[in-house]
């Protein structure tokens, strides 16, 4: 007998199965029917939660950003350090659903979803956590916006193939060096900047 899940549990199950399929097969080769079969639910059950693959992709990106926010809120490390350690592919972290995207159109959809999720989920959480970590004459909201803008710039260029990984790492190192003076303890970023500089020269 099929297990009856709550609405929240069913949504999570759909997304987990979708994530696995997309990473293994690619987004283009994964159809809604594949997701439905992997979940063992009716078409109505699937479409009740997600109207199409773009809606699934948006939700997967939202989940990834939500996980970053949870890490940010739970971490004892300074907030920017915590985000970089948890979410940066340059520091060896899982690229998530991005690994299953091949075409430029798919990547643009991903970037659009990521921008929306950062604005809706992460920006305010980062600004709140930056309280006490920025210098008195620095606005935490401005620092959060600056960090996320830099991150979006790097994401777009690397994901669309405009920059190599070393080029992205080099720009990230330069950007973090420019951002560091706004923090109460700029040296918190030193190990990350050094690692990025090393990657940029590889």
Summarize it.
By secondary structure, the protein is mainly alpha-helical. It has helices at 7-25, 32-39, 43-49, 53-74, 79-87, 104-130, 140-159, 165-179, 190-201. Helix 1 packs across helix 2 (32-39), helix 4 (53-74) packs parallel to helix 6 and helix 6 (104-130) packs antiparallel against helix 7.
Q: Count all strands and give the number.
A: 0
Low-confidence stretches: none
Q: Count of helical segments?
A: 9
Assign a percent range to the helix content: 55-70%
Mean pLDDT: 92
Write the element-wise H/E pattern from the N-terminal end onward.
HHHHHHHHH
Coarse morphology: globular
Radius of gyration (Å): 19 Å
Our estimate of the beta-strand percent is under 5%
Number of discrete domains: 2
How many strands, which pairing sense, and closed or not: the largest β-sheet? none
Structural class: mainly alpha
Between the first and last Cα atoms, what is the distance in angstroms? Answer: 55 Å
